[in-house]
Design a protein that fits this description.
Shape: elongated
Number of domains: 2
Order of helices and strands: EEHHEEHHHHHHEEHHEHEEH
Largest sheet: 4 strands, mixed
Structural class: alpha/beta
Strand order of the largest sheet: 1-2-3-4
Number of helices: 12
Strand content: 5-15%
Helix content: 55-70%
Radius of gyration: 26 Å
Length: 376
């Protein structure tokens, strides 16, 4: 949910979803426009696309530096969203290995943040060495430093620009992550993130306005910083919902149940007249299993009519009213299930389905964001 906002999937590498933020589409258009203007209408489309791909590769290398460093600290990367000149890595919060102290946490964050720029500086240094060995070292300082007509030189400066950009103290750029880590020494992580995002938005506005009167690339950087900060702010709101909202606030209390003695055809008829996709299976006052609408259909097609007891899932997670949404979400994803019964003293009092959970999280996040905007 968080990672899908304004982004499209482009691949899956080593268990990490790779997504491309829609703002990345601005980059090829921006490059084509600047090249077109610089060469009096004589732009080269294939070279422009090659420069775009090269920048994307440099951003990807930067983010993979973060990912490998994070793995060493016990953080499990879930997805990476690539933006022009930077990226945002999302981690599986349910599998984070907690540090022993707040000092260890902010030190870890600083180390992970600084790895990204170091990767780009290393790539730039390697590129300089190769160009120098090829007798083209003097070409590195010709203006403009980065253009589609000279891709080898652009590779050097793209990495230097990405490293320099990410050291700006604007969250979620690496400099902003260092700033947030420093804030977190004296306050909780949510407050530290909000302070860092506020500073980031101010920096983004300065860059966008400053670019109108100087270098157009500054405007592009300001737009990137603004969208990246928006991604992180949205993620913060969702995390707040996950941590603070209890299941009793969102669970479904008006729901249909099945009996293990129901035939599959009877169960299908009940499913037809219900909006549920998943059903608790109850014997007397005891819950004995769960079954989905799709499982009922699959069993009917494969084996014909039978009993719910024979095809229901007898291994399932349960929660209590006071459990958080985050706890329920972790249980759902851990077993790749789509329903969690909510019990009170072993009595079934509600259900939470993946569909209803995602819907509730979205509405609650938007509600909290609107409330916070009104307070501001």
């Amino acid at each position: 949910m968080r990672s899908s906002s304004w982004s499209i999937p482009v691949g899956h590498v080593l268990g990490v979803d790779i997504r491309l933020h829609l703002t990345f589409l601005l980059l090829p258009m921006f490059i084509f426009w600047t090249e077109y203007a610089a060469h009096q209408g004589n732009a080269n489309g294939s070279r422009d696309l090659a420069l775009t791909a090269m920048i994307l590769a440099c951003v990807g290398a930067h983010e993979w530096g973060h990912i490998f460093a994070a793995r060493r600290f016990g953080l499990i990367p879930k997805a990476v969203i690539l933006l022009p000149l930077t990226g945002v890595t999302l981690y599986d919060e349910s599998r984070v290995e907690k540090a022993q102290s707040p000092a260890a946490i902010w030190q870890r964050e600083i180390r992970i943040a600084l790895i990204g720029p170091l990767v780009n500086l290393a790539l730039a240094s390697l590129s300089v060495a190769v160009l120098t060995a090829a007798g083209r070292g003097g070409d590195l300082w010709n203006w403009p430093w980065m253009q589609a007509r000279n891709l080898p030189r652009s590779l050097v400066w793209a990495n230097l620009y990405i490293a320099g950009l990410n050291l700006i103290p604007a969250y979620p750029l690496d400099g902003g992550r260092v700033l947030r880590a420093m804030f977190s020494r004296t306050t909780d992580i949510s407050s530290a993130t909000r302070r860092a995002v506020s500073i980031s938005n101010a920096i983004a506005m300065v860059l966008m306005v400053g670019g109108l009167f100087s270098d157009n690339w500054l405007t592009m950087v300001g737009v990137i910083v603004f969208f990246a900060a928006s991604l992180e702010e949205r993620a913060l709101v969702f995390q707040s919902v996950l941590d603070n909202v209890r299941l009793e606030e969102v669970m479904l209390t008006d729901f249909a149940t099945l009996s293990p003695a129901d035939t599959l055809e009877d169960a299908l008829q009940k499913a037809v007249h219900s909006l549920q996709d998943d059903f608790p299976v109850v014997r007397g006052s005891d819950m004995v299993g769960v079954i989905s609408r799709q499982r009922i259909l699959d069993a009917l097609r494969a084996e014909g009519n039978g009993y719910v007891q024979a095809v229901m899932n007898k291994i399932f997670e349960v929660s209590v009213r006071q459990d958080s949404l985050g706890s329920a979400f972790r249980k759902l994803t851990a077993r790749n299930s789509s329903i969690i019964p909510v019990v009170d003293e072993q009595r079934l009092v509600g259900i939470v389905t993946l569909q209803n959970l995602m819907h509730s999280m979205s509405l609650l996040a938007e509600s909290r964001k609107l409330r916070r905007d009104e307070e501001a």
